[in-house]
Write a structure and sequence with these properties.
By secondary structure, this protein is mainly α. It is 41% helix and 6% strand. Strands 1-2 form a two-stranded antiparallel sheet.
């Protein structure tokens, strides 16, 4: 399994310290990114690691955005927090259910993660001329 970002990258993305379980959250976020990009086409090496630096950067940023979204919504990467009507984290309180549904891949990506992948041209289903 590939993990697209490091705790150091997550810390830089968040502008503060990464959570104690950053490795676990980034692994889960990377799984979600892989699921969302199941039919995407981009160059990889023999191990399946992207060979293009812009693609690697987009995948790292998308994984960090996914973790950021979980942290903001009080999720732990399992999706269970989306099952409840109210979440409170310190002075932040959120209530109501989200009407968002998982995309075609069955994965609910953070809006910022989805935009990052779209801008990088990594959305699946894109027709490429050979």
């Amino acid at each position: 399994m590939r993990v697209y970002a490091t705790p150091e990258q997550l810390s830089a993305y968040l502008g503060g310290p990464a959570p104690d379980d950053a490795d676990r959250l980034l692994a889960r976020a990377s799984e979600d990114i892989d699921s969302a990009l199941l039919t995407a086409v981009y160059p990889v090496d023999d191990d399946g690691t992207p060979t293009s630096e812009p693609v690697r950067a987009a995948l790292a940023n998308a994984a960090c955005a996914q973790v950021e979204w979980w942290l903001a919504s009080g999720d732990d990467g399992t999706g269970a927090a989306g099952q409840w009507d109210s979440v409170s984290i310190g002075p932040v309180s959120l209530s109501g259910r989200s009407a968002r549904r998982p995309g075609a891949s069955g994965v609910e990506l953070a809006p910022r993660a989805a935009r990052t992948l779209r801008r990088a041209g990594l959305e699946p289903g894109v027709v490429v001329a050979w």
